[in-house]
């Protein structure tokens, strides 16, 4: 591998039908680009949702690889293509091994492959657990903003599930002008709750921090509720807990029983994607035999086509779109190119003449 001052060659290879050298971008480089840029990334995610809503993307269903001998684990393939100024194709390949956490390493690991729009050649492999957590958190912060515009801005946030994704969501809320009087935490694992509390204290965030013993107490006391557990099936089923009409970011997708979904305004990122894989909205569809409980997508809300009444809970269930990973991944790639620190694998593509 060599480190090349790449900016000059980059403009040369943007001509059609030239094979770009293959680059590898490490997690350290990804983090260096994304850190402190929460507002830009939220704007990028908003633009990408709008592009997707306008049809300038291809985002087929995610493919779930599961294992009979390791039922709690999975690896998901998210292929996608995005137009607009980004103009890139690619694939996120992301593992979820929840048992990792007990061994002290994160649950999720991932790579993102970017493919050239004109030649199809892969031109970069990026460490992607950070990109994935970043786009997830940016989408949650974006949804919190748009879904609370018709109601008093939430001042009490509650995190149900206090792992890495919860940490990223808090960072993105804080980095995009949210502040809270109260921050509640509930986790089945006392260690996770304590670790998250420690992160909050070290981040210097304002607001009272409370670890709640029960999910009910946390939900009843929060007007912005973030679900980031690893629950495989619903464990919250009493609509009375939501009688105060909170904004609910249902990032872990499978926590809420259909009764809660049916009593709420439901917004998703993409309807076809979200009504799959036994998510809570999928369970509600199976129960009712229809999709009447779904009001639309976040893009519909941003376009003013769907209103979010303040007198009901609103639940955002984002399935997680590969186009978001592509947009954030391409942003990272462009920034690394600009910095001149792109690590290229020389001769990665070797058979480039048809007849040798
Ligand atoms: N929708 C998306 O686009 C998207 C993207 C990335 C991650 N996710 C989801 O976010 C979730 C969190 O991911 P993570 O990396 O932070 O995982 P993690 O393992 O680091 O943390 C999950 C935490 O949830 C806790 N938990 C599990 N069940 C619980 C319950 N019933 N009540 C309270 N706490 C509970 C665990 O003890 C753990 O501390 C996962 O479900 C993941 O699939 C969604």
UniProtKB/TrEMBL annotation:
<dbReference type="InterPro" id="IPR036291">
    <property type="entry name" value="NAD(P)-bd_dom_sf"/>
</dbReference>
<protein>
    <submittedName>
        <fullName>2,3-diaminopropionate biosynthesis protein SbnB</fullName>
    </submittedName>
</protein>
<dbReference type="InterPro" id="IPR003462">
    <property type="entry name" value="ODC_Mu_crystall"/>
</dbReference>
<dbReference type="InterPro" id="IPR023401">
    <property type="entry name" value="ODC_N"/>
</dbReference>
<dbReference type="Pfam" id="PF02423">
    <property type="entry name" value="OCD_Mu_crystall"/>
</dbReference>
<dbReference type="GO" id="GO:0016639">
    <property type="term" value="F:oxidoreductase activity, acting on the CH-NH2 group of donors, NAD or NADP as acceptor"/>
</dbReference>
<dbReference type="GO" id="GO:0005737">
    <property type="term" value="C:cytoplasm"/>
</dbReference>
<dbReference type="GO" id="GO:0019290">
    <property type="term" value="P:siderophore biosynthetic process"/>
</dbReference>
<dbReference type="InterPro" id="IPR023866">
    <property type="entry name" value="SbnB"/>
</dbReference>
